[in-house]
Amino acid sequence: MKIIYNKILPVGRRFYAINLFGILFAKGPCDNVIINHEKIHTAQMKELAYVFFYLFYILEWIVRLFQYGFSTEAYYNISFERESYCNQQDLMYLSSRKPFSFMRYLSVRSQK
Questions:
Q1: What is the C-alpha separation between 90 and 112, in angstroms, rounded?
Q2: What single DSSP character describes residue 92?
Q3: What's the whole-model pTM score?
């Protein structure tokens, strides 16, 4: 995974890294957990041909925003984020991950 360190992306103070089309933009050093989290997102992106990943991500965030009422809680309950956060500590997760595993995280259960 290519990592680009910069002060511009991701935008905002709350975010440290963002994965855009398989390239990680980070404000500083990334440990193995952050990199694994973003690699899980890259696998999700590839499954959905990148463009559909972003369309689905935004659509699901809007649905979750109406569901939870807060943007932070909506973010943490997006199926892509739920899969990534639940498995980011398991550095071998991608070797055993089945395609479209994020679908198991679509249920309406809060993770945070």
A1: 19
A2: T
A3: 0.92
